[in-house]
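ingest -> validate -> predict -> emit
validate: passed (alphabet ok, no gaps, 529 aa)
predict: started
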Amino acid sequence: CVFFFFKQKTAYEILSGLVGSEMCIRDRVSTQSTWDFCAKQGLEMEGNFKLVTLFLILAITLSCLATQETNININNLKREIYLKGKYVRITHELTLQNTGPRRTKQYLHMVNGNYSKNLFEVLAFTKGYLELPISFEKKDETGSLVYKVDLPYSIEVGSKVEIHILELYKNRLLPKPEKLPLSSDEQMVEFIDNLYALTAYPITAQEVIVAVPNINKLEYYTEKESTKVSKTQSIHYGPLLDAYKQQELRIHYEHAKPLIYFPKVERQILLSHLGHIAIDEHIELKNDAAALEGEFSRVKYNSLTNYRQAGHIFRSLTTQLPRKTFGLYYGDVIGNVSTSVATRESSFVFFDIRPRFPVLGGWQTKWDQGYGLLNQYYIKYDANDPELYIFNHTFGYAFKKVMASIYQLKIVLPPGASHINIYLPFKISVKEESLRSQLDIEGRRVIVINKENMHSYYAKNFLVTYRLTPEKMYEKVIMMIVFFMVFYLLMIVFSRFNMSIKQTTNMDTNHSISILKKKKKKKKKKKKK
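emit:
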């Protein structure tokens, strides 16, 4: 902090001198006294610049010495590796002690660069699970990722603090073997990591706990003198008193679950004050489990007696929707999929989707789903300002337990909405688009939010505020009424006109012929005369 303080102050003093000289050149007048003043000011700046430079060098030296003396020691590091689910979850429980000459409030967490492409999220919490600010700092020369964690308070010299750091990974479970026949009962996967935690600080002691689905289905695991296999479906390593070193941790075990994730999820929320809220979702799903050996046979697949057989095949996905959900649909590129099941419970709607075909390892599928919500439960107005509306909803999508590599949320506001503000519980980029629909004059304003590596942690409520006047709200209704009124009047007017050709009678025809004959006789008489 001292280094940046003096650096900013010195830069300001130097720039102020340059600005002063520029002002003299810009605002100069053709008088000799002005030029003398500017020359004198320049000499004073040159003398001050030398003093400032010496002071800057001294400040940098003292700051660097103080930084080198600052140190953090990890008294205890407990690393829990959870391998029971679709994704790998690694939790670091650290006890930090300040052993330096001054207090500190930052901790640098390192992630092995070999698994950076599989990293989904890094989160930091206190011992009581209060979220701590964490940000990506840099990528060092070895390829490791460095994250900066802001501690809950400044650690005094000799004091301790406990924090938890959570790492989420996808595609860390590698199927071994990579291919399985359809009738296989077991899928074996392999997890590889380093036994010792990667850190820039000295560690007094550390331990590693690996949780697996079934301890009796272990094919292989790294053994060490301090290794203990517990009946609680876990493998315990430690205490490890050695310094950091490269030692491979390899776990090969049965994992009878599909390894699914969403490569892409697109969600659109259409707001309406005269109708309801329409939610439409486009979802792409992929299964990274063991691939199929040979060809797929529907007969062999139907012969499987239960889900335990070939458990790595994706068959269905369940979720809970709001209680007031209506108009629920589920379909793919072919059309509606009738294998879905939806039941309304006391506090939610249970939604069970089953794709048109089973998704084996390496396969993927796409589908569209949507439903409606009553707007009075999600759109409120300000009592002091009736034209100010507040929309409150969840940022996530329907299936919160499945991670999405790319997530896009579009909020289509009512026509005529203005003064739009969005409030999110986390920092993310927001952009705006325009959408035209039936009878739109100006088009609807659309809020677009793109999030990479989306998971349940970000499924939090957000707010959108906007202003909407009654004229804009009922603009389409008035247009429709005026259109039908004009159309009705035009139909009445045109119905009064008879545009058909009148049919003549025989008497009228004979009378006309006689008149023509008389005219011809008169013309002949005139010619004879």
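Residues 140 and 162 are 26 Å apart (CA to CA).
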